[in-house]
Amino acid sequence: MRTSFFILFVLGLALSARATVSLPVIFTDHMVLQRERPVPVWGWAEAGREVNVKFAGQTKTTKADKDGRWKVTLDPLKASNDRQNLMVSGQNTVVVKDVLVGEVWLCSGQSNMAMTVKGVQDAEKEMAAANFPKMRMFFVQSFTATSPQEQCKGVWQACSPQTILNFSAAAYFFGRDLHQTLKVPVGLINSSVGGTAIESWTSLKVMEKQPELQPLLEQWRKEVALFEQPETLAKNEAAKKQWQDAVKAAQAASQPPPPQPPVVGRDPLNANRPGNLFNGKIAPIVPFAIRGAIWYQGESNAGNGPLYATQLPLMIRDWRTRWGNEFSFAWVQLPNFLKRETEPRAASTWARLREAQSKSLAVPNTGMTINLDIGEAGNIHPLNKQEIGRRLALWARAKVYGEKIPWSGPLYQSHAIKGNQVVIQFQHADGLKTADGSAALKGFAMADATQKWQWAEARIEGGQVIVSHPGIQTPVAVRYAWANNPEVNLINGAGLPAGPFRTDDWPMDNASMPLKAGAP
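^ thats the sequence. predicted structure below, dont judge the formating
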């Protein structure tokens, strides 16, 4: 009887919780709502229960469906610095306090988006000056899931010297620029995890329809199935226990701990399993109204740049479909990284990943920042996140908000072979010059039909670049900045660096830098 009573008690609590009007966690105190767009508000209540939503003079009424879900849509709101309350009532009343209206951006990716302000250059100075109470950040604290989730964990925080420690640096410097320029509140939704691949941030449902991704998905299915076999679980658990005992013994002997043993198979909750981070960290915030998204990721996919040219556009379309609008989307092209190479090379994993990022600009209403002057040879996490954020904000101010400013570095447009020279035309080419003031351009390589690359001579003539080599009379192809860490100096009048490119489509290997998915 006691067992039966306990079961009935738990069921009663569950039914009572479902009957109570509730909201997703992203609708909590200090949030920012998107201006000038319809604003969905949704949640849960007892099936058939009438729910009223009141905000900024609007009242919307609906009823919870048979599954207890309800949703209303507020009419487009004007930007407001006034602290207002959102009231949702049904069987009970929920009041969300200190709500502002302004610009809301989703900020996602891996560790370079997750990196906080305390890790950047001049961190102490930046943190002391971070007094922007009308700028807020919501950090999605939930992790992975094997199916799309309705709810997540997280909290909205107003920006202050005390809270800035928790803010994504790239997102903060992007948002700060918009906040100071647009003079409206800014909300930033930080959903990022270090060491994660793009396939984890994309829904499994959409990837299963993509032929190019089937080998990747099948490999994961096999490894998860292996992990879940009883004998594998026992083997992994025994190895873990043995390692834990060895760690204790090492600590007792004041010795360094042994490395953790590899896991056989792949945990179904692995952060890189396709769809897992979409399920846990993106699905719960759909369809919260946003202006757009910024994305800093790619390091973990640098081992397969050509596939990324499919994956990034696919993820953008996937997210836009789920939000129900073609929101603006921009990404950070990977900066320079690793040892600088002295000879032109035909293979570079980071160059190929950057090429995939450039190709993705074919997706409408997207943008990309070029950052070949920001990276660090020995640090995969560049400290100059201020410039990363500023360049993202330049794109948003120009392409999203209509400000007449230069926003991109020179991008390859076309080329023409004229005798022993190749003439390169660029977009965003006003005021072409060298960053160091020298007459010679660096980073251009040329090849003839032998496909042997040699450093080339290059000079600026108006809005174009003329490339040649004294030993090549019949040039076939030109490359620029085609290396993990290229030495380059071409910029435009706005001081923004030119993007990498190649005019050939010759096959190449990917042997320059093996970087497995799951790297920082």
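Residues 5-16, 511-520 have pLDDT under 50 and may be disordered.
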